[in-house]
Write a structure and sequence with these properties.
Strands 1, 2, 3 and 4 form a 4-stranded antiparallel beta sheet that branches. About 5% of the residues are buried. This protein has helices at about 40-50, 55-60, and strands at about 1-5, 15-25, 35-40, 65-75. By secondary structure, the protein is α+β, with helices and mostly antiparallel strands.
Length: about 80
């Protein structure tokens, strides 16, 4: 996850914030959905489509291809 800092007016202490994505993929062959979250959406989508990837076992159990159907960016 990416982190950053933000300085508020009148204060010397940074507030940390976390940037992340929530996303939904849909299998184009069986119409099954997968919901996930990540700090790097582009990289995570590549991992889902990599046939040798071990970090995406849930989407490997079902046939693809997987399409991104929804995404939401959040910063805390």
């Amino acid at each position: 996850m990416r982190t950053g800092s933000h300085f508020s007016a009148g204060g010397d202490f940074p507030r940390l914030f976390i940037i992340y994505w929530v996303y939904i993929l849909q299998s184009q062959s069986i119409r099954r959905f997968y919901c996930g979250h990540t700090g790097n959406l582009e990289n995570r989508i590549r991992q889902h489509h990599d046939p040798t990837g071990r970090l995406t076992l849930t989407t490997k159990r079902f046939p693809g291809p997987w399409q991104l159907v929804w995404q939401r960016f959040r910063r805390r």
